[in-house]
Amino acid sequence: MAKNKLKISETNCSLKDVLDIIGGKWAMPIIYHLSKGKMRFKEMERTIEGINTRMLVKELKNMDANGIITRSVFATVPPTVEYELTKKGEKLLPSIYSLYNWGQEYAN
Question: Does residue 9 lie in a domain region?
Fold first, then answer.
């Protein structure tokens, strides 16, 4: 039985591009939690176990710059900031759910 091998070109590698966009340690947990709907910054910080403020800010900025999430700021005191997945981000969900299920089965 022949195994299917993934052919990856070193000059034009979409897998590398994907990992550059969502390759941070915290990106997938953030996307997973945002799949449930809009979340405020502090809500995410409390929900995602083990993340610190600096890393959350860094990952959110990266995902916003790559069009995975949107950041909405409301003029309140103190300012309210909400994050949600874009259509582009929502298209990642089947892959993330598959990885989550794989992890439940094999990584425990």
Answer: no
